[in-house]
Design a protein that fits this description.
The complex is a heterodimer of chains A (about 325) and B (about 140). Chain A is α/β, with parallel strands linked by helices and about 325 residues long. Chain A has 2 domains: about 1-45, no CATH class; about 45-250, 3-Layer(aba) Sandwich (Rossmann fold), CATH 3.40.50. Chain A has 11 helices and 8 strands. In chain A, strands 4-2-5-1-6-7-8 form a 7-stranded parallel β-sheet, sandwiched between helices. In chain B, helix 4 (about 100-105) links the parallel strand 4 and strand 5. The chains are: A alpha/beta (about 325), B alpha/beta (about 140). At the A-B interface, helix 2, strand 3 and strand 4 of A face helix 1, strand 2 and helix 2 of B. Strand 3 of chain A pairs parallel with strand 2 of chain B, so a sheet runs across the interface.
Chain lengths: ~325, ~140
Protein backbone atom coordinates (compact mmCIF):
# COMPACT_ATOMS: atom_id res chain seq x y z
CA UNK A 1 0.00 0.00 0.00
CA UNK A 2 1.18 3.47 -0.86
CA UNK A 3 2.00 5.53 2.18
CA UNK A 4 0.12 8.66 3.15
CA UNK A 5 2.91 11.10 2.35
CA UNK A 6 3.09 9.75 -1.19
CA UNK A 7 -0.68 10.06 -1.56
CA UNK A 8 -0.71 13.65 -0.31
CA UNK A 9 2.20 14.57 -2.51
CA UNK A 10 0.43 13.08 -5.52
CA UNK A 11 -2.85 14.85 -4.74
CA UNK A 12 -1.12 18.22 -4.36
CA UNK A 13 0.55 17.69 -7.74
CA UNK A 14 -2.85 16.93 -9.24
CA UNK A 15 -1.95 13.31 -10.09
CA UNK A 16 -5.21 11.61 -11.09
CA UNK A 17 -4.30 8.16 -9.84
CA UNK A 18 -3.39 9.50 -6.40
CA UNK A 19 -6.52 11.63 -6.25
CA UNK A 20 -8.59 8.52 -7.02
CA UNK A 21 -6.77 6.40 -4.42
CA UNK A 22 -7.15 9.08 -1.76
CA UNK A 23 -10.90 9.37 -2.32
CA UNK A 24 -11.19 5.58 -2.02
CA UNK A 25 -9.29 5.68 1.25
CA UNK A 26 -11.67 8.32 2.60
CA UNK A 27 -14.76 6.54 1.29
CA UNK A 28 -13.79 3.33 3.01
CA UNK A 29 -13.07 5.25 6.20
CA UNK A 30 -9.83 3.34 6.67
CA UNK A 31 -7.70 4.19 9.72
CA UNK A 32 -5.37 6.37 7.62
CA UNK A 33 -8.21 8.47 6.25
CA UNK A 34 -8.36 10.96 9.11
CA UNK A 35 -4.66 11.67 8.95
CA UNK A 36 -4.90 12.12 5.20
CA UNK A 37 -7.68 14.68 5.53
CA UNK A 38 -5.75 16.49 8.27
CA UNK A 39 -2.69 16.76 6.05
CA UNK A 40 -4.73 17.99 3.09
CA UNK A 41 -6.73 20.47 5.14
CA UNK A 42 -4.24 23.37 4.97
CA UNK A 43 -4.31 23.13 1.17
CA UNK A 44 -8.08 23.47 0.87
CA UNK A 45 -10.30 26.51 0.59
CA UNK A 46 -9.26 27.73 -2.84
CA UNK A 47 -11.87 26.07 -5.07
CA UNK A 48 -15.32 27.46 -5.72
CA UNK A 49 -17.65 24.67 -4.64
CA UNK A 50 -20.89 24.46 -6.60
CA UNK A 51 -23.67 22.12 -5.48
CA UNK A 52 -26.10 20.96 -8.16
CA UNK A 53 -29.30 19.37 -7.01
CA UNK A 54 -32.80 18.66 -8.22
CA UNK A 55 -35.27 15.82 -8.77
CA UNK A 56 -34.37 12.76 -10.87
CA UNK A 57 -34.80 13.41 -14.57
CA UNK A 58 -34.42 17.18 -14.35
CA UNK A 59 -31.21 16.93 -16.40
CA UNK A 60 -28.52 17.57 -13.80
CA UNK A 61 -25.84 15.36 -15.37
CA UNK A 62 -26.31 16.78 -18.86
CA UNK A 63 -26.26 20.29 -17.44
CA UNK A 64 -23.03 19.54 -15.59
CA UNK A 65 -21.43 18.18 -18.75
CA UNK A 66 -22.21 21.46 -20.54
CA UNK A 67 -21.20 23.63 -17.58
CA UNK A 68 -17.87 21.86 -17.32
CA UNK A 69 -17.26 22.21 -21.08
CA UNK A 70 -17.85 25.95 -20.76
CA UNK A 71 -15.64 26.23 -17.68
CA UNK A 72 -12.89 24.44 -19.60
CA UNK A 73 -13.26 26.93 -22.45
CA UNK A 74 -12.64 29.63 -19.86
CA UNK A 75 -9.47 27.81 -18.88
CA UNK A 76 -10.65 26.54 -15.49
CA UNK A 77 -9.99 23.07 -14.11
CA UNK A 78 -12.93 21.20 -12.65
CA UNK A 79 -13.65 18.36 -10.24
CA UNK A 80 -17.03 16.62 -10.15
CA UNK A 81 -18.42 14.44 -7.35
CA UNK A 82 -21.64 12.72 -8.42
CA UNK A 83 -23.62 11.07 -5.64
CA UNK A 84 -26.18 8.32 -6.29
CA UNK A 85 -28.08 6.17 -3.80
CA UNK A 86 -26.98 2.74 -2.57
CA UNK A 87 -29.60 0.04 -2.28
CA UNK A 88 -30.66 -0.22 1.35
CA UNK A 89 -31.13 -3.97 0.85
CA UNK A 90 -27.97 -5.14 -0.88
CA UNK A 91 -25.62 -2.20 -0.29
CA UNK A 92 -24.88 -2.18 -4.00
CA UNK A 93 -25.29 0.82 -6.27
CA UNK A 94 -25.74 1.65 -9.94
CA UNK A 95 -23.81 4.84 -10.61
CA UNK A 96 -24.93 6.18 -13.96
CA UNK A 97 -24.14 9.89 -13.82
CA UNK A 98 -21.02 9.43 -15.90
CA UNK A 99 -23.04 8.27 -18.90
CA UNK A 100 -23.83 11.90 -19.71
CA UNK A 101 -20.35 13.13 -18.88
CA UNK A 102 -18.11 10.60 -20.61
CA UNK A 103 -16.92 13.11 -23.20
CA UNK A 104 -15.16 14.86 -20.34
CA UNK A 105 -13.45 11.77 -18.99
CA UNK A 106 -10.30 12.04 -21.08
CA UNK A 107 -9.83 15.77 -20.44
CA UNK A 108 -6.79 16.18 -18.18
CA UNK A 109 -8.32 19.25 -16.56
CA UNK A 110 -11.40 17.37 -15.34
CA UNK A 111 -11.73 14.73 -12.65
CA UNK A 112 -15.06 12.96 -12.18
CA UNK A 113 -15.84 10.64 -9.30
CA UNK A 114 -19.08 8.76 -8.63
CA UNK A 115 -20.00 8.08 -5.03
CA UNK A 116 -22.68 5.81 -3.59
CA UNK A 117 -24.54 6.92 -0.48
CA UNK A 118 -23.54 3.72 1.40
CA UNK A 119 -24.23 3.88 5.12
CA UNK A 120 -25.73 6.55 7.28
CA UNK A 121 -26.59 10.14 6.52
CA UNK A 122 -23.77 11.56 8.60
CA UNK A 123 -21.18 9.22 7.13
CA UNK A 124 -22.15 10.16 3.58
CA UNK A 125 -22.05 13.87 4.22
CA UNK A 126 -18.60 13.44 5.71
CA UNK A 127 -17.20 11.31 2.88
CA UNK A 128 -18.53 13.71 0.27
CA UNK A 129 -17.11 16.72 2.07
CA UNK A 130 -13.74 15.06 2.32
CA UNK A 131 -13.77 13.98 -1.34
CA UNK A 132 -14.44 17.62 -2.23
CA UNK A 133 -11.47 18.60 -0.04
CA UNK A 134 -9.24 16.22 -1.99
CA UNK A 135 -10.27 17.78 -5.31
CA UNK A 136 -9.91 21.28 -3.83
CA UNK A 137 -6.41 20.48 -2.57
CA UNK A 138 -5.50 18.99 -5.95
CA UNK A 139 -5.84 22.47 -7.39
CA UNK A 140 -9.19 22.34 -9.17
CA UNK A 141 -10.63 25.82 -9.69
CA UNK A 142 -14.22 24.65 -9.42
CA UNK A 143 -15.63 21.56 -7.69
CA UNK A 144 -19.15 20.50 -8.60
CA UNK A 145 -21.17 18.22 -6.30
CA UNK A 146 -24.23 16.55 -7.81
CA UNK A 147 -27.00 14.98 -5.72
CA UNK A 148 -30.66 14.17 -6.07
CA UNK A 149 -32.40 16.90 -4.16
CA UNK A 150 -34.85 14.83 -2.22
CA UNK A 151 -34.42 14.05 1.42
CA UNK A 152 -32.43 15.44 4.25
CA UNK A 153 -29.14 13.77 3.46
CA UNK A 154 -28.96 15.52 0.11
CA UNK A 155 -29.69 18.85 1.71
CA UNK A 156 -26.87 18.12 4.14
CA UNK A 157 -24.40 17.31 1.39
CA UNK A 158 -25.24 20.22 -0.77
CA UNK A 159 -24.90 22.64 2.13
CA UNK A 160 -21.15 22.25 1.88
CA UNK A 161 -21.26 24.18 -1.39
CA UNK A 162 -20.61 27.89 -1.71
CA UNK A 163 -23.17 28.21 -4.44
CA UNK A 164 -26.18 25.92 -4.64
CA UNK A 165 -27.89 25.46 -7.98
CA UNK A 166 -31.34 23.88 -7.96
CA UNK A 167 -32.31 22.29 -11.27
CA UNK A 168 -35.97 21.79 -12.14
CA UNK A 169 -37.84 21.01 -15.33
CA UNK A 170 -41.28 21.96 -16.65
CA UNK A 171 -43.98 19.51 -15.70
CA UNK A 172 -42.36 18.66 -12.40
CA UNK A 173 -44.73 20.95 -10.52
CA UNK A 174 -45.51 18.43 -7.85
CA UNK A 175 -41.84 17.80 -7.35
CA UNK A 176 -41.32 21.44 -6.58
CA UNK A 177 -43.94 21.03 -3.90
CA UNK A 178 -42.28 17.92 -2.58
CA UNK A 179 -38.84 19.42 -2.22
CA UNK A 180 -39.62 23.00 -1.40
CA UNK A 181 -39.12 22.66 2.33
CA UNK A 182 -35.47 21.79 1.97
CA UNK A 183 -34.07 22.69 -1.38
CA UNK A 184 -36.20 25.71 -2.24
CA UNK A 185 -34.85 27.48 0.80
CA UNK A 186 -31.18 26.83 0.19
CA UNK A 187 -30.94 27.42 -3.57
CA UNK A 188 -28.77 30.37 -4.66
CA UNK A 189 -29.50 29.97 -8.36
CA UNK A 190 -32.52 28.23 -9.87
CA UNK A 191 -32.54 26.56 -13.27
CA UNK A 192 -35.52 25.58 -15.34
CA UNK A 193 -33.93 23.04 -17.64
CA UNK A 194 -35.54 21.46 -20.70
CA UNK A 195 -36.82 24.90 -21.60
CA UNK A 196 -37.80 23.65 -25.05
CA UNK A 197 -40.77 21.97 -23.41
CA UNK A 198 -44.20 23.35 -22.81
CA UNK A 199 -45.06 25.21 -19.64
CA UNK A 200 -41.62 26.72 -19.10
CA UNK A 201 -43.04 30.04 -18.10
CA UNK A 202 -45.41 28.43 -15.65
CA UNK A 203 -42.51 26.60 -14.04
CA UNK A 204 -40.56 29.86 -13.74
CA UNK A 205 -43.56 31.58 -12.24
CA UNK A 206 -44.05 28.75 -9.75
CA UNK A 207 -40.47 29.08 -8.61
CA UNK A 208 -40.59 32.85 -8.39
CA UNK A 209 -43.78 32.72 -6.38
CA UNK A 210 -42.27 30.18 -4.02
CA UNK A 211 -39.10 32.24 -3.67
CA UNK A 212 -41.02 35.40 -2.94
CA UNK A 213 -42.50 33.65 0.07
CA UNK A 214 -39.13 32.71 1.51
CA UNK A 215 -38.08 34.85 4.43
CA UNK A 216 -35.37 37.27 3.38
CA UNK A 217 -32.11 36.38 5.05
CA UNK A 218 -29.57 37.75 2.67
CA UNK A 219 -29.23 40.53 0.14
CA UNK A 220 -28.81 37.95 -2.62
CA UNK A 221 -31.98 37.36 -4.56
CA UNK A 222 -31.82 33.94 -6.26
CA UNK A 223 -32.13 34.34 -10.04
CA UNK A 224 -34.05 31.87 -12.19
CA UNK A 225 -32.26 30.82 -15.40
CA UNK A 226 -33.77 29.02 -18.40
CA UNK A 227 -31.60 26.33 -20.00
CA UNK A 228 -31.89 23.61 -22.61
CA UNK A 229 -28.79 21.75 -21.52
CA UNK A 230 -28.82 19.17 -24.28
CA UNK A 231 -28.62 21.96 -26.88
CA UNK A 232 -26.15 23.94 -24.80
CA UNK A 233 -28.61 26.82 -24.46
CA UNK A 234 -28.53 29.10 -21.43
CA UNK A 235 -25.27 27.61 -20.14
CA UNK A 236 -23.22 30.80 -20.40
CA UNK A 237 -25.95 32.76 -18.66
CA UNK A 238 -26.07 30.17 -15.89
CA UNK A 239 -22.31 30.33 -15.43
CA UNK A 240 -22.55 34.11 -15.25
CA UNK A 241 -25.07 33.84 -12.42
CA UNK A 242 -22.91 31.30 -10.59
CA UNK A 243 -19.97 33.65 -10.96
CA UNK A 244 -22.05 36.60 -9.83
CA UNK A 245 -22.95 34.65 -6.71
CA UNK A 246 -19.28 33.87 -6.10
CA UNK A 247 -18.49 37.58 -6.33
CA UNK A 248 -21.38 38.37 -4.01
CA UNK A 249 -19.98 35.88 -1.48
CA UNK A 250 -16.50 37.31 -1.79
CA UNK A 251 -17.98 40.68 -0.92
CA UNK A 252 -18.18 39.45 2.67
CA UNK A 253 -20.76 36.70 2.95
CA UNK A 254 -18.28 33.96 2.16
CA UNK A 255 -16.70 34.29 5.59
CA UNK A 256 -20.08 33.72 7.19
CA UNK A 257 -20.65 30.64 5.01
CA UNK A 258 -17.18 29.27 5.68
CA UNK A 259 -17.72 29.84 9.38
CA UNK A 260 -21.01 27.96 9.26
CA UNK A 261 -19.48 25.08 7.32
CA UNK A 262 -16.55 24.78 9.69
CA UNK A 263 -18.85 25.01 12.70
CA UNK A 264 -21.10 22.24 11.36
CA UNK A 265 -18.07 20.13 10.60
CA UNK A 266 -16.63 20.64 14.06
CA UNK A 267 -19.94 19.85 15.78
CA UNK A 268 -20.27 16.67 13.69
CA UNK A 269 -16.70 15.65 14.48
CA UNK A 270 -17.24 16.20 18.22
CA UNK A 271 -20.47 14.18 18.13
CA UNK A 272 -18.80 11.38 16.23
CA UNK A 273 -15.70 11.22 18.42
CA UNK A 274 -17.33 11.74 21.82
CA UNK A 275 -20.42 9.64 21.24
CA UNK A 276 -18.32 6.98 19.52
CA UNK A 277 -15.91 6.77 22.45
CA UNK A 278 -18.71 6.54 25.02
CA UNK A 279 -20.59 3.86 23.09
CA UNK A 280 -17.43 1.83 22.49
CA UNK A 281 -16.62 1.98 26.18
CA UNK A 282 -20.13 0.88 27.19
CA UNK A 283 -19.98 -1.98 24.72
CA UNK A 284 -16.59 -3.11 25.93
CA UNK A 285 -17.73 -3.20 29.54
CA UNK A 286 -20.96 -4.95 28.61
CA UNK A 287 -23.01 -2.10 30.08
CA UNK A 288 -24.76 -1.24 26.82
CA UNK A 289 -26.59 -4.58 26.72
CA UNK A 290 -27.80 -4.16 30.28
CA UNK A 291 -29.08 -0.67 29.58
CA UNK A 292 -30.90 -1.87 26.48
CA UNK A 293 -32.52 -4.61 28.55
CA UNK A 294 -33.70 -2.07 31.15
CA UNK A 295 -35.25 0.05 28.44
CA UNK A 296 -36.95 -3.00 26.92
CA UNK A 297 -38.46 -3.78 30.30
CA UNK A 298 -39.72 -0.20 30.49
CA UNK A 299 -37.75 0.48 33.62
CA UNK A 300 -36.34 3.56 31.96
CA UNK A 301 -36.12 5.23 28.53
CA UNK A 302 -33.28 6.11 26.13
CA UNK A 303 -33.25 9.82 27.00
CA UNK A 304 -33.06 9.26 30.75
CA UNK A 305 -30.23 6.79 30.25
CA UNK A 306 -28.34 9.28 28.08
CA UNK A 307 -28.85 11.99 30.74
CA UNK A 308 -27.61 9.65 33.43
CA UNK A 309 -24.51 8.70 31.43
CA UNK A 310 -23.73 12.33 30.68
CA UNK A 311 -24.11 13.37 34.33
CA UNK A 312 -21.76 10.56 35.41
CA UNK A 313 -19.12 11.57 32.92
CA UNK A 314 -19.33 15.26 33.72
CA UNK A 315 -18.86 14.48 37.40
CA UNK A 316 -15.79 12.41 36.60
CA UNK A 317 -14.29 15.27 34.62
CA UNK A 318 -14.61 17.79 37.47
CA UNK A 319 -11.73 18.04 39.93
CA UNK A 320 -12.55 16.99 43.53
CA UNK B 1 -6.73 -3.93 2.25
CA UNK B 2 -9.69 -4.16 4.56
CA UNK B 3 -12.02 -6.99 3.65
CA UNK B 4 -15.11 -4.81 3.88
CA UNK B 5 -13.89 -2.60 1.09
CA UNK B 6 -16.65 -2.39 -1.50
CA UNK B 7 -16.02 -3.97 -4.87
CA UNK B 8 -16.22 -1.26 -7.54
CA UNK B 9 -16.85 -2.31 -11.13
CA UNK B 10 -16.90 -0.40 -14.40
CA UNK B 11 -19.29 -1.91 -16.92
CA UNK B 12 -18.23 -0.55 -20.28
CA UNK B 13 -19.28 -0.91 -23.89
CA UNK B 14 -16.30 -0.29 -26.12
CA UNK B 15 -16.72 0.54 -29.77
CA UNK B 16 -19.56 1.16 -32.15
CA UNK B 17 -22.54 -0.80 -31.03
CA UNK B 18 -25.69 0.29 -29.33
CA UNK B 19 -27.04 -2.96 -27.94
CA UNK B 20 -26.63 -2.57 -24.20
CA UNK B 21 -29.27 -4.85 -22.80
CA UNK B 22 -26.70 -7.46 -21.79
CA UNK B 23 -24.43 -4.87 -20.19
CA UNK B 24 -27.34 -3.42 -18.22
CA UNK B 25 -28.51 -6.81 -16.97
CA UNK B 26 -24.99 -7.62 -15.85
CA UNK B 27 -24.65 -4.20 -14.19
CA UNK B 28 -27.89 -4.76 -12.34
CA UNK B 29 -26.75 -8.21 -11.18
CA UNK B 30 -23.53 -6.75 -9.79
CA UNK B 31 -25.46 -4.05 -7.97
CA UNK B 32 -27.77 -6.66 -6.49
CA UNK B 33 -24.70 -8.58 -5.34
CA UNK B 34 -23.72 -5.52 -3.28
CA UNK B 35 -21.15 -4.04 -5.65
CA UNK B 36 -20.86 -0.44 -6.80
CA UNK B 37 -21.29 -0.35 -10.53
CA UNK B 38 -20.18 2.57 -12.67
CA UNK B 39 -21.89 2.43 -16.02
CA UNK B 40 -20.23 4.30 -18.88
CA UNK B 41 -22.95 4.16 -21.48
CA UNK B 42 -22.45 3.34 -25.14
CA UNK B 43 -19.70 3.81 -27.71
CA UNK B 44 -16.72 4.17 -25.43
CA UNK B 45 -13.17 4.56 -26.65
CA UNK B 46 -10.39 2.59 -24.91
CA UNK B 47 -9.12 5.91 -23.51
CA UNK B 48 -12.49 6.75 -21.98
CA UNK B 49 -12.82 3.31 -20.40
CA UNK B 50 -9.34 3.38 -18.90
CA UNK B 51 -9.71 6.97 -17.64
CA UNK B 52 -13.02 6.03 -16.02
CA UNK B 53 -11.41 3.05 -14.32
CA UNK B 54 -8.62 5.30 -13.08
CA UNK B 55 -10.75 8.14 -11.74
CA UNK B 56 -13.28 5.80 -10.17
CA UNK B 57 -10.49 3.62 -8.71
CA UNK B 58 -12.30 0.42 -9.65
CA UNK B 59 -11.28 -3.15 -8.90
CA UNK B 60 -12.92 -4.67 -11.97
CA UNK B 61 -13.60 -3.76 -15.61
CA UNK B 62 -16.36 -5.71 -17.33
CA UNK B 63 -16.32 -5.22 -21.10
CA UNK B 64 -19.38 -5.97 -23.17
CA UNK B 65 -18.87 -6.28 -26.91
CA UNK B 66 -21.04 -7.57 -29.72
CA UNK B 67 -19.54 -5.79 -32.69
CA UNK B 68 -16.65 -8.14 -33.45
CA UNK B 69 -14.06 -5.44 -32.83
CA UNK B 70 -12.65 -7.06 -29.69
CA UNK B 71 -9.29 -7.87 -31.29
CA UNK B 72 -8.89 -4.25 -32.28
CA UNK B 73 -10.12 -2.61 -29.06
CA UNK B 74 -9.11 -4.93 -26.21
CA UNK B 75 -5.32 -4.79 -26.84
CA UNK B 76 -5.54 -1.00 -26.74
CA UNK B 77 -7.41 -1.12 -23.43
CA UNK B 78 -4.93 -3.55 -21.88
CA UNK B 79 -1.98 -1.49 -23.09
CA UNK B 80 -3.42 1.75 -21.66
CA UNK B 81 -4.18 0.04 -18.34
CA UNK B 82 -0.61 -1.07 -18.06
CA UNK B 83 0.79 2.28 -19.04
CA UNK B 84 -1.29 4.04 -16.39
CA UNK B 85 -0.33 1.57 -13.68
CA UNK B 86 -3.72 -0.09 -13.51
CA UNK B 87 -2.44 -3.59 -14.19
CA UNK B 88 -3.93 -4.80 -10.88
CA UNK B 89 -7.49 -4.30 -12.19
CA UNK B 90 -9.39 -7.49 -13.02
CA UNK B 91 -10.61 -7.32 -16.63
CA UNK B 92 -13.07 -9.74 -18.18
CA UNK B 93 -15.30 -9.69 -21.23
CA UNK B 94 -18.68 -10.86 -22.39
CA UNK B 95 -20.73 -10.77 -25.55
CA UNK B 96 -20.27 -12.31 -28.98
CA UNK B 97 -16.65 -13.42 -29.09
CA UNK B 98 -15.55 -16.43 -31.20
CA UNK B 99 -13.97 -19.27 -29.21
CA UNK B 100 -10.80 -19.23 -31.31
CA UNK B 101 -10.10 -15.66 -30.19
CA UNK B 102 -10.25 -16.47 -26.48
CA UNK B 103 -6.66 -17.77 -26.04
CA UNK B 104 -5.37 -14.61 -27.68
CA UNK B 105 -7.45 -12.39 -25.42
CA UNK B 106 -6.30 -14.27 -22.34
CA UNK B 107 -2.70 -13.90 -23.39
CA UNK B 108 -3.11 -10.13 -23.38
CA UNK B 109 -4.50 -10.18 -19.85
CA UNK B 110 -8.27 -10.55 -20.20
CA UNK B 111 -8.97 -12.86 -17.26
CA UNK B 112 -12.01 -14.60 -18.74
CA UNK B 113 -14.45 -14.43 -21.64
CA UNK B 114 -18.13 -15.22 -21.13
CA UNK B 115 -20.56 -16.01 -23.92
CA UNK B 116 -24.33 -15.75 -24.33
CA UNK B 117 -26.34 -17.75 -21.82
CA UNK B 118 -23.89 -17.23 -18.96
CA UNK B 119 -25.75 -16.96 -15.66
CA UNK B 120 -25.25 -13.70 -13.80
CA UNK B 121 -24.39 -15.54 -10.59
CA UNK B 122 -21.49 -17.19 -12.43
CA UNK B 123 -20.14 -13.70 -13.14
CA UNK B 124 -20.62 -12.55 -9.54
CA UNK B 125 -18.81 -15.65 -8.29
CA UNK B 126 -16.02 -15.08 -10.79
CA UNK B 127 -15.50 -11.52 -9.57
CA UNK B 128 -15.54 -12.48 -5.89
CA UNK B 129 -13.00 -15.24 -6.45
CA UNK B 130 -10.61 -13.22 -8.59
CA UNK B 131 -10.81 -9.61 -7.47
CA UNK B 132 -7.76 -7.97 -5.88
CA UNK B 133 -5.72 -11.11 -6.29
CA UNK B 134 -2.97 -9.33 -8.10
CA UNK B 135 -2.49 -6.50 -5.60
Amino acid sequence: MTNIEQLIDGVLKGDRRFIAKTITLIENDLPESQKTVSLLYPHTGKAHIVGITGPPGSGKSTLIQKLVEELRRQGKTVGVVAVDPSSPFTGGAFLGDRVRMQELSTDEGVFIRSMATRGSLGALAKATKDAVKVLDASGKDVVVVETVGAGQSEVEIVKLAHTIVVVLAPGLGDDIQAIKAGIMEIGDVFVVNKADRENVNKAIMDIETMLSMNPEREKWKPPVVKTTAIMGEGIIELLDKIDLHRKYLEGGTIDTRRRQTVETELVEAIKEKVAGAIVDDLKKKGILDKLVQKILEKETDPYSVADMLLAKRLKRLKPS
Amino acid sequence: MSSEKKIRVVVAKPGLNSHDRGAKIVARAFRDAGMEVIYTGLRQTPEQIVETALQEDVDVIALSILSGAHLALFPKIMELLERKGLDDVLVFAGGIIPKEDVPNLKKMGIAEVFGPGTRTDTLVKFIRENVRKRK
